Amino acid sequence: MTLRVRLLAFASLLSLAATAQAAPSSGGWDWLVAPYGWGASVGTDLTTNIPPSSSSSDVKFQDLVDHFDGVGEIHVEGQGDGFGFFADFTYLGLADESEQPNFRATADLDTRLFEAAAVYSPGNERFTGVETFAGLRVIDVDFNTTLTPRDPAYPPVIVDTGDTLTDFMLGVRYTFAFSHNWGLTLRGDGSWGDTEGTWNASAMGQYHTQHGSWAFGYRYLDVDLKPNGNRVSINMSGPIIGYAFRF
Q: How confident is the model at residue 163 (pLDDT cuts 50, 70, 90)?
């Protein structure tokens, strides 16, 4: 059985620490704290050997907003001369209900994503130029689906899958400093281990202020899981806008 649930979520302020204002080396550390939101379109594919055979649905934002449970993200990063680290936490809670030709489908998705990595930044200015990073990505996902056939001769089918998976993550980002106030950061990374593979990419423009940066751009994340013998694919993509605080 293949079930596709198209979900759309939106949260308020966001920024990525990679989009912060460039700073010359000072001997101390620069710190960033960035609560952020993500206007992401979320697609979920579930593949299992339990019948019925397949279903598909697409839900627009105005149809889904009543089923939106919540999303929250925060990014923290510190950087010294040449090295640093970051930690990123994302929570996404979504629910959907749809009517199919042969059955009624309800789905609930809770995903917690934690990333922690060391950063190598060889440039003279922090948060600029080419930076590489390596660390861990931990994904905790709970996905519950109930399929109720219209034919009363068939019982409801419940698929409840969940697991905590840990990957080794490698990535690179590059920040262009067009002027004192404007910049652009490109990031790409992947992780492998307990998951079937995850891929993340973003492009973020920045407008720097005295104490941080306004940020705006686009992010894509694809996660392939195989918990408890089931295959779950989660992809999230959409615009980002917000502010990174610096101290």
A: confident
CB 139, CB 91: distance < 8 Å: no
Query: Residue 144 is encoded by which pair of tokens?
Result: 């519950």
Contact 40, 73 (CB under 8 A): no
Q: Are 222 and 111 in contact (CB under 8 A)?
A: no
The answer to whether the CB of 141 falls within 8 A of the CB of 232 is yes
Kindly state the helix (H) or strand (E) to which residue 169 belongs, with its residue range. strand 157-177
Task: Give the list of residues 6+ apart from residue 63 with CB closer than 8 angstroms, or none.
Answer: none
CA distances (Å), 18 to each of 9, 132, 204, in order?
23, 11, 9
6: its two tokens: 């198209």
Q: DSSP letter string over 77-98?
A: EEE-SSEEEEEEEEEEEEEEEE
- Identify which of 115, 105, 163, 125 has the alpha carbon closest to the alpha carbon of residue 16: 115
More confident residue, 220 or 159: 220
